[in-house]
Amino acid sequence: AHLMVLSDPELIGQVKDSITSNKVNAESALKEVTDMFISIFAGMEDNPYMQERAADIRDVSKRILAHLLGVKIPSPATIKDEVIIVAADLTPSDTAQLNRQYVKAFVTDIGGRTSHSAIMARSLEIPAIVGTKEVTSIAKDGDIIIVDGLSGEVFLNPSEEVVAEYRAKAEAFAAQQAEWEKLKDSKTYTKDGHQVELAANIGTPKDLEGVVNNGAEGVGLYRTEFLYMDSHEMPTEEDQFEAYKAVLEGMNGKPVVVRTMDIGGDKELPYLPLPHEMNPFLGYRAIRISLNEPEMFRTQLRALLRASVFGKLRIMFPMIATLNDFRGAKALLEEEKAKLIAEGVAVSDDIQVGIMIEIPAAAVLAHQFAKEVDFFSIGTNDLIQYTMAADRMNERVSYLYQPYNPSILTLIKHVIDSAHKEGKWAGMCGEMAGDQTAVPLLVGLGLDEFSMSASSVLKTRSLIAKLTLSDMQALADKAINECATVQEVEALVEEAVSKI
């Protein structure tokens, strides 16, 4: 995101124009133009994701100005005492420098679940509460603060009773984590011996440490678009090969599901101009770009095929709507495989090829797709918003983002049943897969693989070990066939979970 800001021709052009037209220095021109862009993005109240990108512009502007003025910006990396950081906002670069040894949590005025700081906090496993709107106006240096990352509560200068209560909670949580740690090297079984697979989602090879430390049985989603987004030019075949090889070797024979690049929507590249669209999430993105940019796609496929000999590779195509989408992508893959073999390059002969099920059209036609793919991975984040016609980033319709809606559960069941009928497996890599309330339902629906944030793996394994498959099948059947609303499903699941 920072590279995109730095290379944005509109921003650069306006800074140059301001210098020449207004006869001001570079520092003044930069501040004037970036302040304008920040104001525009911050005002996009109907699009929280774009609204939060104002932080990227603010961060880049601050660092360029500091460089121009010869001023050194204090770095969070220099913190050597145990602290909780309170700030108006934390920039992505600030968050990336946080040392978990010293920074125990942070609280900000600005931000939301999709802000970079919140996303990175989850990755770093640092408790964070963002978007409080007022914490900096009431907290001061030296205050005693308790941050409850589970409940979203912040306590300023708490009473001795509250401190004692949270010390006890912290001890209980540590004890619980110690119990979960015992499951690190275990497979995942229900109480009556039904096995499922718990995998983790990653964005870069650096995320592998958390995957391994939390006992994941594989990588269920490797988001390769970060390779493209973190570069100021198109990644070469060699660049990609090294990244894929590192992940496959790091997983030491465990399966790695690599999603081909999912660019478009809210993910743009400075070196790949995309048309302005009224509805980018319903437009030119993911496999649609890949099939329309075959040379770029072929480069990624070649890199993946070359890396396949270093581990257990599974390739997954995103945003598939029709069988022709899949057949077109598979044909390019087979062509590149044949070329590499002809060149004498080693390629694994055991590469599963599957698709993301995130478009309702693909979910409804899963029984046909299952005849040609090797696996499904259900992307619930998009599947839910497309099925409910509700932008999950829009707070005004967020109430319609309903993972437990009977219509969603019915689609999921159809996808899983279709896979099983053809002897294939079905996984899930959306947030629902790691939702502790959803897990019993998903076990009952027959899901084979759950892919989630690495930090959720052990507690999910612990939960599944308490479940009985037959009971969960009865629960799922009742949710689909007897419940008419999401509230009815939630009440049903809550009652069942309370008895576990």
Question: Can you walk me through this structure?
Answer:
The chain has helices spanning 2-6, 9-22, 26-42, 48-52, 54-69, 92-96, 116-124, 135-138, 160-181, 208-213, 225-229, 237-250, 287-292, 294-307, 323-342, 360-364, 366-369, 380-388, 406-421, 439-445, 457-464, 469-481, 486-498; strands spanning 83-87, 103-108, 128-129, 145-148, 153-156, 188-189, 195-202, 219-223, 255-259, 312-317, 352-357, 375-378, 425-428, 449-452. With 500 residues, the chain is an alpha/beta fold. It folds into 3 domains: 2-69, Orthogonal Bundle (Enzyme I, Chain A, domain 2); 76-159, 3-Layer(bba) Sandwich (Glucose Oxidase, domain 1), CATH 3.50.30.10; 186-498, Phosphoenolpyruvate-binding domains (TIM Barrel, Alpha-Beta Barrel), CATH 3.20.20.60. The strands form 3 sheets. It has an 8-stranded parallel barrel with strand order 7-8-9-10-11-12-13-14, surrounded by 4 helices. Strand 2 (103-108), helix 7 and strand 3 form a beta-alpha-beta unit. The radius of gyration is 24 Å and the shape is globular.
